[in-house]
Design the sequence.
């Protein structure tokens, strides 16, 4: 009798090994969203390892997808949004790659992706969706199909299940078995974990099972393939209640990403060879500063200025 | 309190006034004006409104300030509960969301909006961020409030969107009724030039800021402008509304939606143009 | 502008008024399950008020449905199970009513009901299900339809949305706005609350919003129509962490329900006129004893002996 | 430890042995023998098994005793996590549950089970409790272990179920392959008389308790009995297995599944019949 990976006793491993569970061409679900708790340490490691042709799926994202596009790691973008909101506006690498036809645009809708993940989670070969039929998003997805409701005669869009090859998630705590604690907002993290074929998790801190259980298990161990302790693993996005987002660093990315040369320099400065180097480059003081957000609303505003 | 106020403040108040008391309301991420409007409505005329934050899905939070990003912990402050992503979208899909706010890089006369791309689909001239959950939500949400701060640019209100992300009242695929959409579609549109309703599913100018006239609106609108029989001047914010805008958004995140010329537009509480 | 019931400031009311939100003939979703946290105070009040022709839907239940059947309040049973497990076996009133054709049997499956509730929750006019096609349960449901998957060609069963007219739920805490705290196992309580047209809640104790929020909101206020403080409102089923199930009382029901006469006597003894009377009949000492379950595993076993 | 043991204990051990290490396994409610078996497997040969409790959906609990009802808090003891109802059923529906236990008031040669009703559908002679989630789960779960403690009654193993609640390998509607069911169906059946496999999708007797012979099984079976070439005597529980059964279920909840005659059947650790 064999013990499957997901029921193994100890899922702990290093970041390179964990990122190694993502193959070129994989459909990759990236956890978190916008400026919040994106698995940036894994994103950086994928860039270090030179991953190619990834098909990213998910809801509203920002620097994670933009950096992967900047590193030419992405072939297909099936997100509902990629950008920096009113904060910094359009995602520069994404915009440029889209304009050059360097990435395939399969823009989707948060709810369509949710329903496709649910179809995978429920083991259904399709699930009906109502809204898409009025949107040009429909025309970016030849894989959808029209279907008629057997009860109402209504025209609906049938969407196929979406079971990502791998989900990348950054949590707060995990035990060695792979039980993971994450706090709300979870965005699609839970659905990604339940629908994906492999689940790779980084956490701010490894902890005892007792501690993770007391904090609350968000993703149970039997879904998880690998856990990595990666402090500041979401930087420059936020990982509350530990640190807020690093707006200054995001601004630096936006500036760098204005051209290929800037992107190359950014990656040269920050990425190689590993996360220790990355944290050194950001600087202990800068990282510590991000943890002071909770002193007062004024302090928080100051950090975001 | 400084009784002189600016366009960004007035627009937020106008948006707030489209919300009815007791409505369940949601704004998308990256939508500071709508976000300010919702918190203003909740703290003024719509205390029974159910306020769902745009990316945290926090229920009725009372944030001390608005951060420049929508998925921030500061937006959970005072919330008794944080909905799951799924719960918000299901609420919308089953028709239990009464109102949502939508904007667009392009908006056509039927209230269709484009937040996806300008130019051809394979190599867009400008790849916009994307529609988030709007593509489905717009089909089923009770009523949509549309807004733009870029009407004056002349490039936003267009005859035809290069790409329809979120459906208004009618697209080349058909009307809402024909497509079986239960949601009511665009009910109001507030821009930097004036306010519109959609009496026949098509935008109609009904009200103006005191520093704008119908011809200016016509000049900035890419489709044939329909105008109500009596175009009125907008009612200026009350002191309470204005105070609340400033209390909700002390750092002026709402201002990031406006160009500098529009930010300079200022008024008095009597609804007169204020001299700088 | 009108304030809808569900967004009203104060949802508190008495048990009679709350039960009054259930009409004859309604499709009723009953929370909890088996011997755990069933909304028995509401069940008793429906019996007191002489409700008729209810169509009950849900997963595995016991004394709640059996008592309602004993009171001739139920017309249709669409549950996945009604009984007392190995503990006391078959549900006596249910078995008898079924044999006499006094209730319509629309036995269902936990998962089918879950998917139908989800269809209602997602606003879908149907949702596909895989398993039913191999079961005679299919033949109890002429409202299901067969459908072909547009992607795989697979035959599936399309089931319609299930939006109960009213959900009855017993929770631990609620505030006056209707925010409700319940602990896992939740069975279908969450799905009932989200899918039903009306939600009526009893709780062990009304509390401040701060306390409910700190404990965790399971059902947000805007779904809830009425909250009632009903201590021991789940008795004789359990309501942990407060009290275990009253096995002795359940045994008394099983004995009584062997015949119509016994049922009449049981209702006469325990029901009228209100819950104060019910609690008096059970007795303060007997109720207090049920709260001693956590002294030791041995004590717990003793209470269940 | 008393080395003399009884049929209920042996059956639980036999059921436990159908579980492989690393499997994700679920028992339904009201199934004490399956419940005991899962906890015994987890504490003996299958430490990597993922044990999901039958009505609490607790993950890997280590209860101090088994209560007479399945949805009891005592069954959360030591669980690092409690799954949602939905999560368990979705796990099953997408094929990630490796094994489930099913019993029935009637069981046919294909492993179809009836837990719904005996007699006609409109006025059943005996309305059984119902199938819980089995009707869907049985279609998609990796493997089913079937058990009954009432084989000896002669009324349980029947040629045809009055009502098929949970599908085995084949029903009048077709085979699993024909119906497109991804689950493997019944893999093993353990009864109070012996053990069966399903080599061609039909039950075949492979092993017997030492106090039962093939003729006794034939006499109690309502369908034509298929028998393996070599019918073996079951391997008795090890001391560790037996100790674990008693530790898991100190109050003997498992015994509620048996009639008094069967409860009197006793054996020694050498697999011999013990004299009372």
Sequence:
């Amino acid at each position: 009798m064999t013990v499957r990976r997901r029921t193994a006793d100890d899922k702990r491993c290093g970041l390179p090994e964990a990122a190694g569970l993502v193959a070129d061409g994989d459909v990759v679900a990236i956890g978190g969203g916008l400026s919040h708790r994106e698995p940036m340490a894994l994103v950086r490691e994928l860039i270090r390892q030179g991953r190619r042709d990834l098909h990213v799926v998910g809801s509203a994202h920002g620097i994670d997808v933009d950096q992967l596009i900047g590193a030419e790691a992405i072939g297909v973008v099936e997100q509902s949004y990629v950008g920096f909101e009113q904060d910094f506006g359009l995602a520069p690498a994404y915009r440029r790659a889209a304009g050059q036809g360097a990435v395939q645009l399969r823009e989707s809708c948060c709810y369509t992706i949710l329903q496709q993940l649910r179809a995978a989670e429920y083991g259904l070969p399709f699930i009906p969706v109502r809204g898409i039929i009025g949107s040009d998003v429909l025309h970016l997805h030849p894989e959808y199909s029209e279907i008629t409701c057997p009860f109402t005669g209504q025209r609906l869009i049938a969407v196929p299940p979406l079971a990502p090859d791998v989900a990348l998630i950054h949590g707060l705590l995990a035990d060695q078995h792979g039980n993971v604690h994450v706090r709300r907002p979870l965005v699609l993290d839970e659905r990604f974990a339940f629908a994906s074929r492999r689940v790779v998790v980084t956490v701010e801190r490894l902890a005892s099972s007792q501690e993770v259980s007391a904090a609350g298990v968000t993703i149970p161990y039997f879904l998880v393939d690998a856990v990595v302790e990666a402090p500041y693993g979401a930087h420059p996005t936020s990982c509350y209640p530990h640190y807020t987002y690093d707006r200054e660093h995001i601004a630096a990315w936006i500036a760098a990403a204005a051209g290929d040369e800037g992107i190359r320099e950014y990656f040269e400065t920050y990425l190689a060879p590993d996360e220790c180097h990355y944290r050194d480059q950001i600087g202990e003081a800068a990282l510590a500063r991000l943890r002071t957000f909770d002193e007062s609303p004024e302090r928080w505003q100051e950090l975001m200025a | 309190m400084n009784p002189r106020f600016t366009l960004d403040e007035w627009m937020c108040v106008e948006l707030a006034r489209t919300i009815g008391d007791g409505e369940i309301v949601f704004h998308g991420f990256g939508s500071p004006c709508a976000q300010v409007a919702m918190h203003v409505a909740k703290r003024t005329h719509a205390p029974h409104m159910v306020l769902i934050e745009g990316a945290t899905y926090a229920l009725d939070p009372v944030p001390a300030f608005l951060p420049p990003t929508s998925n921030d912990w500061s937006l959970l402050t005072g919330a008794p509960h944080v909905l799951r992503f799924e719960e918000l979208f299901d609420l919308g899909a089953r028709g239990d969301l009464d109102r949502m706010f939508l904007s667009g890089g392009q908006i056509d006369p039927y209230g269709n909006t484009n937040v996806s791309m300008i130019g051809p689909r394979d190599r867009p001239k400008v790849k916009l961020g994307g529609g988030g959950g709007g593509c489905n939500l717009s089909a089923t949400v009770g009523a949509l409030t549309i807004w733009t701060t870029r009407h004056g640019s002349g490039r936003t209100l267009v005859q035809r969107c290069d790409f329809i992300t979120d459906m208004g009242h009618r697209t080349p695929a058909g009307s809402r009724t024909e497509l079986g959409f239960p949601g009511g579609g665009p009910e109001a549109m507030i821009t930097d030039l004036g306010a519109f309703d959609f009496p026949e599913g098509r935008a109609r100018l009904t009200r103006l800021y005191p520093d704008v006239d119908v011809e200016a609106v016509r000049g900035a609108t890419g489709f044939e402008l329909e105008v109500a029989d009596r175009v009125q001047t907008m009612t200026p914010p009350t002191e309470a509304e204005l105070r609340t805008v400033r209390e909700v958004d002390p750092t002026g995140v709402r201002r990031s939606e406006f160009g500098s010329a529009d930010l300079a537009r200022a008024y008095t509480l009597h609804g007169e143009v204020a001299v700088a």
User: Anything to note?
Assistant: The longest helix of chain B spans residues 32-43. The radius of gyration of chain B is 18 Å. Chain B has one domain: 5-267.
